[in-house]
Design brief:
seven-stranded mixed sheet; binds copper (II) ion; 5% helix; binds CU-O-CU linkage; Immunoglobulin-like; 30 strands; 5 helices
């Protein structure tokens, strides 16, 4: 039965938020730098409308290719009321504009770098030739241009693009260089899922504002990134019709983990993960997204009377009262709805017989030293070193362990969408039954995944997608030959 939820004002937010993650907070922060707690939220929660991220128009659609142009530049924008915030952006937009692509139709993007720093554009989750992967050392100098070509031969997926320039990516992404790249195909489009205005990207990230100047404060492992931004707006509301929506949640945070749930603990239906639709829809009370992960859910707001306001909460690792509310859905009208969620969304091929196995250990300094470093197999990232040699066509099992007692990590591979075989020795849940490119590794966890290298050869990185960690060294190179 639908329940009318009481609207919680900012002053009541502490009482209104369940603190599932709060006992973990001291350890989560033990390895990072510390700053004083933020007493007042810099904005009244739910006062701003959630922006819809504009879709970028191609400059040409000739020759079966969609060609786009983007300029990376610094702009000032108002994010907090009455203050200007300097951002590093794609096309002056925050977040960057959405690119909509179609399987079999290449996309070309000409990027011009008008920032004062090097940049490199990586489409996260995409299978692309090495020179178009936005590798950490393969950067665009300030003032220079570069053309990236994306073949889009892979299946549909909610991908995203972001900066990847070695040692500045964590700051560049934090300062605004992230956007969505939605790849569709006939298989996905044939399904009766919510479409058009009812298919909405919701990119979530955190930020630390200097509440006097409005500036974004960047420090590695900063615990004071406690203002959550949704499509660029702080803890906004989103007016929805009483019908089904496909919400494409994406975690664009440098290193915050989100566990998203509706405040009435009612079900959402997860239909997709990083690499596109799940085999079957999965009704769940929460969706866990570590940095870089995506999950599409369908929520049927027709179960709520018009006038209902439902807060989307965060109970992920390290969540506190300040970061426990993400946004609010305000059901403000009725609408027709001919969408539905089929029982079978997709058939994934059986995993091929693995041809190799390897194990990796993620670990970072967590003894409180001022300048922690982060390692894969006890080594810092060295762009001149190949860490894993892979035969083209191989299908490999990788067992990845987080050896830290306190620090969470996750694990992202370029080039491939992999399958999760085991989580801590058991079969993964239905939310991990699809294709993945980034996987959660809470302290002490082990995940076994299988990746098949049957597309491009060359050198690609894999890393923890807590970008402060990869910038501290938790990244390595695989070479497919
Ligand atoms: Cu989101 Cu190396 O990537
Ligand atoms: Cu990490």
């Amino acid at each position: 039965m639908a329940t009318r939820r009481r609207v919680l004002g900012a002053g009541l937010s502490v009482a209104g938020v369940g603190l599932t993650g709060v006992s973990l907070l001291p350890v989560f922060h033990a390895y990072g730098s510390t700053t004083g707690p933020v007493a007042e939220p810099p904005v009244q929660p739910f006062s701003e409308p959630m922006p819809l991220v504009p879709v970028l128009a191609p400059v040409s659609t000739a020759h079966g290719t969609d060609t786009y142009e983007m300029t990376m530049r610094t702009v000032s924008r108002s994010i907090l009321p009455g203050l200007q915030t300097e951002l590093r952006t794609y096309n002056g937009q925050f977040p960057g504009p959405t690119i909509k692509a179609r399987r079999g139709r290449p996309v070309v993007v000409r990027h011009r770098n008008e920032l004062p720093v090097a940049a490199s554009v990586h489409v996260h989750g995409a299978s692309v030739p090495q020179r178009h992967d936005g590798a950490p050392m393969d950067t665009i100098a300030p003032g220079a241009e570069r053309v990236y070509r994306y073949p889009n031969k892979q299946a549909h997926a909610s991908l995203w693009y972001h900066d990847h320039a070695h040692h500045v990516e964590s700051e560049n992404v934090y300062r605004g260089m992230h956007g969505s790249y939605l790849l569709t195909d006939d298989e996905e489009e044939a399904l009766p899922l919510p479409k058009g205005d009812f298919d909405v990207v919701i990119g979530i990230r955190d930020a630390h504002f200097d509440t006097t100047t409005g500036a974004l404060v960047y420090r590695m492992s900063d615990r004071a990134r406690t203002t959550l931004l949704v499509n660029g707006a702080p803890v906004p509301h989103f007016k929805v019709a009483a019908r089904s929506y496909r919400l494409r949640f994406a975690n664009h945070s440098n290193q915050r983990f989100f566990e998203l749930r509706l405040e009435d603990d009612s079900d959402m239906v997860q239909i997709a993960s990083d690499g596109g639709l799940l085999p079957r829809p999965h009704a769940t009370k929460s969706v866990y997204l570590t940095s870089g992960e995506r999950a599409d859910v369908v929520i049927d707001f027709s179960r709520y009377p018009v006038g209902t306001k439902i807060v989307l909460r965060n109970t992920g690792f390290g969540a506190t009262a300040e970061t426990g509310q993400v946004m609010r859905f305000d059901v403000d009208r009725t609408a027709e709805d001919d969408s539905s969620v089929p029982d079978v969304l997709r058939t994934l091929p059986r995993l091929p017989k693995p041809t190799a196995q390897r194990s990796l250990v993620l670990r970072m300094d967590e003894d409180g030293r001022p300048d922690p470093q982060a390692y894969i197999d006890d080594k810092l990232y060295d762009p001149g070193r190949v860490d894993a040699r892979i035969r083209a066509g191989a299908s490999e099992i990788w067992t990845v362990t987080n050896a830290n007692a306190k620090a969470p990590h996750n694990f992202h591979m370029h080039l491939v969408q992999f399958r999760v075989r085991e989580r801590n020795g058991a079969a993964p849940g239905p939310e991990e039954a699809g294709l993945k490119d980034t996987v959660r590794l809470l302290p002490g966890e082990t995940v076994t995944l299988q990746a098949t290298f049957d597309t491009y050869r060359g050198e690609y990185v894999y890393h923890c997608h807590m970008l402060d960690h990869s910038a501290m060294g938790m990244m390595a190179t695989m070479k497919i030959t």
